[in-house]
Specification:
It is an enzyme of class 5 (isomerase). By secondary structure, the protein is α+β, with helices and mostly antiparallel strands. It is built from 24 helices and 33 strands.
Length: 889
């Protein structure tokens, strides 16, 4: 019996059926080891030694494989056919060797590009050893990504509060998005005009021709730059006579595109299906691993992480056979088509993405697939079959027309196309039963019969004004295409890189376009200013090329790491002397359009409009960057830094405080303002001024004096509780609207309830809350009113709870009562830490020793140390049903 290791349980089940009783197929669930997410997992000073960690779930899976090996004849590593798959096999083998269960038994590596019985059995008949250079390339990539992330990210945290992380590929992809936004901001729109004529042939057929020359000169695109010039040319055409100069019909062949790569599949799925890159890969993974079609589980497409565009010879033969059967011999070219990629640094080590069986037409297996699977399979099948079909034959007709107005001449042109033979286009249209298509279907506009030297009648002259538009923002598909063109990233990293940018709030997606957020633009500007080399496109692409050369056995992986680390470490060290003022000065200049948007009145956007003398500048706070006045604290003007810069605040009238009236009790002025956390109401001036943020759903333009007074006057006294005689009040906290009575809280359904709830309803809500708490928490721990996050020393979260003797802060076994009168919803992390430290008898506001439970949990993860070869990190899919890889950045 042989043990076979694959990555996912779905593959294991299918492959077990193919191999039969002589094999036991087990899943690794993706990677089995990872670099711990902490400093020191890669040690440059120890020749880039890498420390690996096996989590609990992976330990169990490795134990299962090791137990099976004890009674086996050999080990077959059958993970995916790429760099990540090779690395997983290497990790598994290394761990099994450490457990001493191999004991000289044969170990072989097999790869198959499709999960079909033939592909799997063919692979088993042709095993090989683990590809060491491929593993070396994986180790180098993993170490590079770790070293960049764990050394550059702390620099961001220290110098740019609010930034989340930086990565080798992630930061360059973000720069692409931010650079495009800067192009849009710098873009100056220009006016231009297009002129065309609606003309009629002697036979009464109308068509349109556009102006292409005038005054003896050919007009370049957008050459007519103003209405005056357009008017002059329109007058010329209005009074002109028209005659056909030449008619040229030229046959043109249109060739099919190659089968899909990872990149082109993600692009097509985005533009045609509206799929995100991650959604595309999830669906493709399922189609690759196998779908039950009538009692048989079979992979429907080949491996979906590839930059190759060629199909295997047997697949080409199968496609040509299917074309002849389904479309007819006319659609079959004389020779098979062969493709080569144009993408920079493409390896083409694997086949393109194609159907495993071209006879599985999408309509025939529709009932076995869900909607997403059918849509994506349909794309793959059509692109694959079309890639081997005959060229489309198109007749493109160009008509040149002369206009003459009393000796003033102009030239017009009309172009039309007719598809004489659809060729590969037939794969994308509804097929007739005999496979034939109409011989004169149109591609674009079709022209009527037009003959040279015949006169044409003018029907109408069209003159339309246009303005040039800025370059479009990237979509996920166009960004992936650009990254591929530049040689940045690899097929397995595109989706993960885009997901990271979204997760970090560096970009958002609006109408399928990637919008850089202020946080993302700040990070990019910082890196461009102080780590220029490491966000350059060419540098990143050259590094990718070196990794590919490692894969080919041409470079030593540690030599590449040494060269990189020497310069990168020096750059990191230089930033230690960098002052925050230097950072702000650089960001103010780089992000001027974002930080200082132009004002409608033409005034200097860098001068504070509130005090009139202070200079506006970026400021760095605990939660990120904002714009503030240099005259602080005398002038406390601030503005949130958003992707729209100051435009949003100006649109709401908030660049300058908006006066709403005077508080009749205090005599202080109420104003509506915009701050770093959004619009708010302020009563009075100075540090002691009372402020209240607008509740969710309240728009600045809807705020009047009555609403402002109601908001600033919170908490609102409702009345005394009939039993306790203590006041019930309502207010708005961090977690929404609430009632407060004798230290106990109860949630209200809406913000409006805060201002309208009466005494009877308030008593009922409080009683309902008391009833629920009493029934479920008797003898236990009260529910948390507020979660402040993890304690910096470990040991779990810090929470605010409501106890028998009032609200308190809890951390582990430490309970610290809140001072009398403290609002539990307003307690900060710093205040909670001080209370916990005081309760625990410590000083300095923090505890120095984590509870024993935290230590035990930390020791629970088993770390292993390797010196021969560093290893890459992997996701730990403890609760997943399919294997997932951790894509390197």
């Amino acid at each position: 019996m042989n043990v076979v290791v694959v990555e996912s349980p779905a593959k294991a089940k299918t492959i077990n059926k193919y191999l039969g009783p002589g094999y036991k197929v087990l899943a690794s669930f993706g990677h089995v080891r990872d670099l711990p997410a902490k400093d020191g997992s890669v040690l440059p000073d120890q020749d880039f030694e890498m420390l690996w960690e096996v989590d609990g779930a992976s330990q169990k899976r490795i134990k299962d494989i090791a137990d099976a090996m004890k009674s086996s004849d050999g080990l077959i590593l059958a993970t995916d056919p790429d760099r990540e798959g090779e690395a997983i096999s290497w990790h598994v083998l290394d761990l099994l060797n450490k457990k001493r269960v191999i004991n000289g038994k044969p170990v072989k590596r097999v790869v198959f590009n499709a999960i079909t019985k033939k592909a799997v059995l063919d692979a088993m008949a042709d095993p090989r050893d683990i590809d060491v250079p491929l593993v070396d390339a994986y180790l180098a990539r993993r170490a590079l990504d770790y070293l960049v992330g764990f050394n550059l990210s702390p620099v961001l945290w220290r110098k740019l509060p609010g930034a989340r992380s930086a990565g080798r590929v992630q930061s360059v992809a973000l720069r692409l998005v931010c650079d495009r936004e800067s192009e849009i901001e710098r873009f100056i729109s220009e006016e231009y005009w297009n002129l065309s004529a609606i003309l009629k042939t002697p036979r009464g057929d109308e068509f349109e021709a556009r102006l292409v020359s005038a005054d003896g000169k050919r007009l370049q695109p957008r050459a007519i730059g103003n209405g005056e010039e357009a008017g002059r040319l329109k007058a010329l055409l209005e009074g002109a006579s028209y005659v056909v100069d030449t008619v040229e019909a030229k046959p043109v062949k249109r060739n099919p595109s190659p089968p899909f790569t990872t990149s082109t599949l993600q692009q097509a799925a985005s533009s045609k299906l509206g799929f995100s890159a991650s959604r595309t890969m999830q669906v493709a993974q399922k189609l690759y691993e196998g779908v039950d079609i009538g009692g048989e589980t079979v992979g429907l497409i080949t491996y979906m992480r590839t930059d190759g565009v060629q199909m295997a010879p047997e697949a080409i033969d199968a496609a040509r056979h299917a074309i002849a059967n389904q479309f007819g011999e006319r659609y079959l070219p004389e020779k098979a088509r062969f493709y080569s990629t144009k993408a920079k640094n493409a390896q083409e080590a694997h086949e393109a993405i194609r159907p495993t069986d071209f006879d599985r037409v999408p309509d025939r297996i529709r009932k076995f697939l869900d909607d997403d699977q059918l849509k994506l399979y349909d794309l793959v099948w059509k692109r694959g079959i079309a890639s081997q079909m005959a060229s489309a034959e198109i007749e493109r007709t160009t008509v040149e027309i002369l206009a003459d107005n009393a000796g003033k001449k102009a030239g017009l042109r009309a172009v039309g196309s007719v598809i004489r033979f659809d060729g590969f286009i037939a794969a994308y249209t509804d097929q007739k039963e005999d496979g034939e298509q109409s011989d004169d279907s149109e591609e674009g506009g079709r022209l009527p019969e037009i003959n040279a030297r015949e006169n044409l009648a003018k029907q109408k002259i069209n003159s339309t004004q246009h303005f040039t538009e800025p370059p479009p923002r990237y979509s996920e598909a166009s960004l992936i295409k650009k990254m591929e063109e530049l040689g940045i990233g690899r097929p397995s990293t595109y989706a993960a890189t885009l997901a990271t940018l979204r997760d970090r709030d560096y970009v958002t997606i609006d109408k399928r376009k990637l919008l850089p957020q202020a946080k993302g633009r700040l990070v990019t500007a910082f890196l461009e200013s102080f780590f220029t080399k490491y966000v350059e496109y060419d540098f990143t692409a050259d590094l990718e090329e070196k990794l590919d050369r490692i894969s080919a056995g041409e470079l030593n992986w540690k030599d590449v790491l040494r060269d990189f680390w020497r310069d990168f470490f020096a750059q990191i060290e230089d930033t230690k002397e960098l002052r925050v003022t230097n950072v702000l000065d650089a960001l103010n200049e780089t992000l001027a359009p974002l930080v200082f948007p132009k004002r409608e009145d033409g005034s200097d956007p860098r001068i504070c409009q509130v005090c009139g003398t202070g200079n506006l500048s970026l400021k760095l706070g605990k939660y990120g960057a904002f714009v503030g006045c240099s005259n602080y604290p005398e002038c406390n003007y601030t503005r949130q830094l958003s992707s729209e810069g100051g435009a949003e605040a100006e649109a709401n009238g908030l660049n300058e405080p908006k006066a709403l009236g005077t508080d009749p009790v205090t005599g202080e002025e109420l104003t509506l303002r915009s701050g770093r956390f959004g619009p708010y109401i302020q009563r009075g001036d100075g540090k002691d001024a009372k402020r209240a943020s607008l509740p969710k759903g309240w728009k600045p333009e809807d705020i009047d004096y009555e609403k402002a007074m109601a908001l600033i006057s919170l908490p609102r006294d409702i009345g005394k509780h009939p039993e306790s005689g203590k006041m019930i009040s309502s207010g708005i906290g961090r977690y929404g609207p609430f009632l407060l009575h004798d230290g106990s809280y109860a949630n209200l359904e809406s913000v409006e309830d805060v201002f309208t709830v009466g005494l009877n309803r308030a008593v009922t809500v409080l009683a309902e809350k008391q009833s629920k708490a009493g029934g479920g928490a008797r003898g236990g721990t009260p529910a948390a009113l507020k979660d402040l996050g993890a304690h910096p020393d470990g040991g779990g979260s810090i929470t605010v709870r409501d106890g028998k003797y009032g609200p308190y802060v809890n951390w582990g076994k430490v309970n610290a009562t809140l001072p009398k009168g403290t609002d539990p919803q307003a307690i900060t992390v710093e205040e909670a830490l001080a209370l916990i430290a005081a309760k625990a008898g410590k000083s300095g506001g923090t505890t120095k020793k984590a509870p024993a439970k935290a230590k035990a949990a930390a020791a629970g993860a088993k770390a292993t140390k390797t010196t021969a070869k560093p290893k890459a990190a992997a996701k730990k899919p403890a609760a997943k049903t399919t294997a997932k890889k951790k894509s390197a950045e």
